[in-house]
Design a protein that fits this description.
About 45% of the residues lie in helices and about 5% in strands. It is elongated.
């Protein structure tokens, strides 16, 4: 048996924690998966409803990212695309309506 101190040098150091910050705010990330067969959007709405019914400290800001963020971007894009499509259809049909 050989003592570990013969080939290992131990030195005491201060322990440092890691704080994640975004835009100067401390950030804690919570991740989760849903059970198979359950829609993440449904669980998200349940969680948002629960947060509305159970207010938390006003200094805490809750932001949902991931699929929710992507869905919001897609919804905004599709809304704008739909309005542009209606406008273009109106421009195309204007000469037809004026001839009649």
């Amino acid at each position: 048996a050989v003592p570990v101190s013969n080939f290992v040098k131990r030195e005491a150091e201060q322990k440092t924690g890691r704080l994640r910050r975004v835009d100067g705010f401390r950030v804690i990330t919570v991740k989760a998966d849903v059970e198979e067969g359950v829609l993440a959007d449904t669980k998200l709405h349940e969680l948002q409803a629960w947060l509305a019914d159970h207010p938390i400290d006003p200094r805490i800001q809750v932001v949902f990212k991931g699929e929710d963020e992507e869905q919001a971007k897609a919804k905004a894009f599709l809304g704008k695309a739909f309005m542009v499509a209606l406008f273009l259809m109106g421009l195309i049909l204007m000469p037809v309506v004026n001839r009649c």
